Structure formats: structure tokens, C-alpha cells
Amino acid sequence: MNNDIERILFDEEQIQTRVAELAAQITNDYQGKRPVIVSVLTGAVLFTVDLIKKIDLYAEMDFVDVSSYYGGTASSGTVKLLHDLKHSIAGKDVIIVEDIVDTGRTLKFLMELLEGRGATSIKVCTFFDKPAGREVEVATDYVGFDVPHEFLVGYGLDYENYYRNLPYVGVLKPEVYQKNDD
């Protein structure tokens, strides 16, 4: 897998340092509250686990699975809810935890869904933000790193469901995904 990486953007130490900083910020902002951490499957799981361990608050955790990629390198433009929350979020403060915000379509879909279910507040914590890929205007409240408009893998980010387990984030060599996209 490592041979498929063009270059490493963030190593494991940089990642863990930033996770701790985000957790401290969330802990400070949510004093006296009990937020629901909604992790977006599957990419955000590693980030969510690291983050919630460092948040010093009572917090619930739930999961949703929404997708617009379906295994390719570009968004299909159509977002589907693949797995819904198990618990009600009505009257609760929600923090959506995403791996990456790219086009914004998935996040917009999810925010509208949760707003319709009566959340008191909704904030977004994404580990990676790719503003150059944005097609839909969405706000992010907590951002780990802004990233270039390149195909990234590692720390939950994948290509065809591989590379998620890399402890760093790197740029995937174009020849890896171009040969499969032909």
C-alpha cells in the first residue's frame, strides 16, 4: 500500500496532535451540554474514535452512512442514506463528525435531514476540508486541516475501500486509480 502513495501530507503525530486540539475546543464549547456525536460511516470512524476519547464531556455517539461516491474517485451527485441513526436527536445538540468535506453535497443532505428531526443545534467537525472541491455551500465549525484538491487516502479515507488503515494521510498516485477508472 505504501508504494501507492505519491507523498505523505500528514503523519501520525500531526494527526493525533490536531485531534487533541479539536477535542479540547469541543470540550470548551460544549461545557454544561451533552452533545450527540454523529459519526459518518465509514471514513470518519477512525477520527471519531480518536476524537471522542479526548472529549471530556458526557457525550452520546451514533452513526449514519450516507454516500455519493459508490467506490469511485468523484461524487455521483446523488446522495443516499444507507444507514440511519438508532436514536432520536430531537432537542439535542448534535456534532456531525466527517472525515472530509469535498463537494458539500453529502454534508448538506445530512444537515437538512437532522434539522428536520428537531436537533437543537448542529455543528460540523471535519478532519479534512477540501474547499477547492466545493459545489454546495456548507459551513464547517471545526476543521482539522484544509487539504489540496488531490485524491487523499489514509486515516479513514479510502479508494475502493482500501487504504483506510494507513496511519497517515497521503496523496494516492494517479496511476493507481486511473488504471481502474478506464
Automatic annotation (TrEMBL):
Role description: Purine salvage pathway enzyme that catalyzes the transfer of the ribosyl-5-phosphate group from 5-phospho-alpha-D-ribose 1-diphosphate (PRPP) to the N9 position of the 6-oxopurines hypoxanthine and guanine to form the corresponding ribonucleotides IMP (inosine 5'-monophosphate) and GMP (guanosine 5'-monophosphate), with the release of PPi.
GO cellular component: cytosol
Pathways involved: Purine metabolism; GMP biosynthesis via salvage pathway; GMP from guanine: step 1/1; Purine metabolism; IMP biosynthesis via salvage pathway; IMP from hypoxanthine: step 1/1
Recorded family membership: Belongs to the purine/pyrimidine phosphoribosyltransferase family.
Domain of life: Bacteria
Catalytic activity: IMP + diphosphate = hypoxanthine + 5-phospho-alpha-D-ribose 1-diphosphate; GMP + diphosphate = guanine + 5-phospho-alpha-D-ribose 1-diphosphate
The Phosphoribosyltransferase domain, residue ranges: 11-159
EC numbers on record: 2.4.2.8
Subcellular location: Cytoplasm
GO-annotated biological processes: GMP salvage; guanine salvage; hypoxanthine metabolic process; IMP salvage; purine ribonucleoside salvage
Chief place of localization: cytoplasm
Cofactor(s) this protein requires: Mg(2+)
InterPro entries named in the record: HGPRT, Hxn_phspho_trans, PRTase-like, PRTase_dom
Keywords, in A-Z order: Cytoplasm, Glycosyltransferase, Magnesium, Metal-binding, Nucleotide-binding, Purine salvage, Transferase
Protein name, per record: Hypoxanthine phosphoribosyltransferase
Coiled-coil portions: none
GO MF annotation terms: guanine phosphoribosyltransferase activity; hypoxanthine phosphoribosyltransferase activity; magnesium ion binding; nucleotide binding
